[in-house]
Write a structure and sequence with these properties.
The complex is a heterodimer. By secondary structure, chain A is mostly helical. Chain A is built from five helices and four strands, in the order αβαβααββα. The longest helix of chain A is centred in the first third of the chain and has 16 residues. In chain B, strands 2-3-4-1-5-6-7 form a seven-stranded mixed sheet, sandwiched between helices. Classes of the chains: A mainly alpha, B alpha/beta.
Chain lengths: 119, 198
């Protein structure tokens, strides 16, 4: 049991990134990021700035929010985050662009949400 | 069990983006602020004066870099979906930044101050020319009045026939919400039109 659990936490970060790289899943300003395993401390070999990002992303945030909260330019946040993602430490969430009809369901959900929020 | 719920929750979250464009002082930041659940946040982006692909993070020393500020706000639409509104820098000389911001957006709102129509021409022209994402025009009702009708504005700014034009008050939350809903409905209708039959 405990073996299983340990094993799953070891594998999880790699499952989270699922081989996603910068080029396939670009980090846009609105892209949500979160620490792959929030119960773990940041690896000690990370740069201080990356450690701060790691800790910040224990709660899901957008790239723009990471940049604003750490007071670093967006471009810097994007590079550091994509490095963390490639290390399997940060999970990059899907971004809905609405460009394909398959995303219509999500857009409809967004519309329903707005109708509820702004009556 | 608790940790299981947490990881499911983490994985299922996703986000989307709406761009708020318009001339300097047209009411972009006011709109972002009135619909956002957080106070509008300003962040800085260092941009190069050439369009840069996401793959290309290499610094090219010959390119001019500029720091621009942009505002953004957030709406938690439901447990899984977060919508961000990004205000583009008002100054026309930052047009190169729009490409980066517009990429991946569900749509855009061009906020127009009817008293200064010319200020909005760059923004309208940008979205009319590209037509990469659906956009609507929102006429900001300063002092509760509009100097022009929607059709007069359409003609003056050469806005496409199919582009919705609404009037609103950027300071009013539900009025701003109406603008966002109009944009989403329009985006859905353009998607439906583009969908192949069967």
């Amino acid at each position: 049991m405990s073996y299983r659990r340990r094993r799953s936490t070891r594998i999880r970060p790699y499952t989270f990134t699922g081989g996603r790289t910068r080029s396939r899943h670009p980090l846009m300003v609105q892209t949500l990021v979160s620490t792959a395993d929030p119960s773990n401390d940041p690896p000690p070999n990370l740069m201080p700035e990356s450690q701060r990002i790691y800790l910040l992303c224990r709660e899901t945030r957008s790239v723009a929010e990471v940049a604003a909260e750490l007071d670093i330019p967006l471009g810097v946040a994007q590079v550091l985050l994509s490095d963390l993602a490639e290390l399997g430490l940060v999970y990059i969430h899907p971004t809905i662009t609405g460009s394909s009809p398959s995303e219509n369901q999500v857009l409809e959900r967004a519309l329903r949400g707005l109708e509820r929020l702004f009556q | 069990m608790v940790s299981n719920d947490f990881s499911n929750d983490i994985q299922s979250k996703m986000s989307t983006k709406i761009v708020i464009a318009g001339g300097f002082g047209a009411g972009k930041t006011t709109l972002v602020g009135s619909v956002s659940e957080i106070p509008a946040v300003t962040t800085e982006a260092v941009m190069t004066e050439a369009s840069v692909d996401y793959d290309d993070t290499s610094a090219t020393p010959l390119k001019t870099t500029t720091t621009v500020a942009m505002d953004f706000g957030r709406i938690t639409v439901d447990r899984q979906l977060i919508m961000y509104m990004f205000g583009t820098p008002g100054q026309a000389r930052f047009w190169f930044m729009w490409d980066d911001l517009v990429r991946g957006a569900v749509g855009a709102v061009v906020v127009v101050d009817c008293r200064r129509l010319a200020e909005s021409f760059d923004a309208v022209d940008y979205f009319e020319t590209n037509r990469r994402i659906p956009y609507i025009v929102a006429l900001n009702r300063f002092d509760g009045r509009l100097d022009f009708t929607a059709e007069q504005v359409r003609e003056a700014l050469e806005i496409g026939e199919d582009v919705p034009i609404v009037d609103f008050d950027a300071r009013d939350r539900s009025s701003g919400g109406m603008v966002l809903k109009t944009l989403l409905r329009y985006a859905l209708s353009t998607n439906a039109a583009a969908q192949p039959v069967g």
